[in-house]
Amino acid sequence: MPSSPPPYVIVIGTSAGGMPALTQLVAQLPATLPAAVLVVQHLAPDSQGELLAERLGRHTALACHLARHHAPLEAGHLYLAPPDRHLLLKEDHLLVTKGPHENSYRPAADALFRSAAVAFGSHAVGVVLTGMLHDGTAGLEFMKRAGGVAVVQDPAEAEFSSMPESALRNVAIDYVVPLAEMGALLTRLVSPGADAPALPMTDIPADLKLEAAIAERVVGSTEQIEALGHQVPLTCPDCGGSLWQLDAGQVLRYRCHTGHAFTAEALAEQSQKTLEESLWVALRMLEERKNLLSSIAGHGTHRQVTYQTERAEELKRHINRLREFLLNGSEGTGLGAEAGGPRQP
């Protein structure tokens, strides 16, 4: 029989460079840790999740598992999100779902962090490690709004610094620490005592509860999304539906009614990628039209040849400009203001 639910939960999000960082971190956590540890590592859909859980288990005293739907939550245990599935918390057990992507990821750290914030409030600790892009940024703000603690790996030592840096730009992070010191910090934060008193559960913001409920049911409704924000003239890059700008929190975010969710930075990245793909398609079509006009110019009267040749030359100029733009265009700058300075452990 499983023991009673743990008093604390630690949720960790990581991406590129994540497995080496995770193995170093979990090696520092004792078997007596009074918290469950849940991990989202961005994985390819065809990855072997069981092998990764076994790999982590060889480096830690925690009992490591690939998360299973409705499995009970236990202290001293680590649960790894399966490939291509969201890992969520619901009271004292796990949910493993194939809900819509968030920030173009499944599993997504934001989805896990939000559910932990709703389920555990001030007894939740969120951690962002090495990784690319922005997943986990909004999730750490969810944790803070519910009274939890936000921790990030020192970007200066992260193999890929984008995820920690994004969190630092947008959220008032509590602790920024190197991996070598993180295990001791996490153990202290979830161990009642002078440094980490057992805090009362805070009132969970209603919008977080609603978003968590939508994620549990996989899809939402237009009426629910309208309760969270206001519709804007933007379309979801994943499904083409309308987007709503969410009103709560300091991290600018968007959702569609089918459940796809984005921070503004993630949406900008995705829209830039979509735009670039469209421009390459346009370039191909222009090249094909130029070739067709050149072929037509080889036939017909002198006047027709001259006309088609001029059209082909005009297209060639447009093609050269578009190709130069695609090959030399600069990346857009990141969004978001610098957050306040974190505390040192």
UniProtKB/TrEMBL annotation:
<feature type="active site">
    <location>
        <position position="42"/>
    </location>
</feature>
<feature type="active site">
    <location>
        <position position="135"/>
    </location>
</feature>
<dbReference type="InterPro" id="IPR000673">
    <property type="entry name" value="Sig_transdc_resp-reg_Me-estase"/>
</dbReference>
<dbReference type="InterPro" id="IPR011247">
    <property type="entry name" value="Chemotax_prot-Glu_Me-esterase"/>
</dbReference>
<feature type="active site">
    <location>
        <position position="15"/>
    </location>
</feature>
<dbReference type="GO" id="GO:0005737">
    <property type="term" value="C:cytoplasm"/>
</dbReference>
<keyword id="KW-0378">Hydrolase</keyword>
<dbReference type="InterPro" id="IPR035909">
    <property type="entry name" value="CheB_C"/>
</dbReference>
<dbReference type="GO" id="GO:0000156">
    <property type="term" value="F:phosphorelay response regulator activity"/>
</dbReference>
<keyword id="KW-0145">Chemotaxis</keyword>
<dbReference type="GO" id="GO:0006935">
    <property type="term" value="P:chemotaxis"/>
</dbReference>
<dbReference type="GO" id="GO:0008984">
    <property type="term" value="F:protein-glutamate methylesterase activity"/>
</dbReference>
<protein>
    <recommendedName>
        <fullName>protein-glutamate methylesterase</fullName>
        <ecNumber>3.1.1.61</ecNumber>
    </recommendedName>
</protein>
<dbReference type="Pfam" id="PF01339">
    <property type="entry name" value="CheB_methylest"/>
</dbReference>
<feature type="domain" description="CheB-type methylesterase">
    <location>
        <begin position="5"/>
        <end position="193"/>
    </location>
</feature>
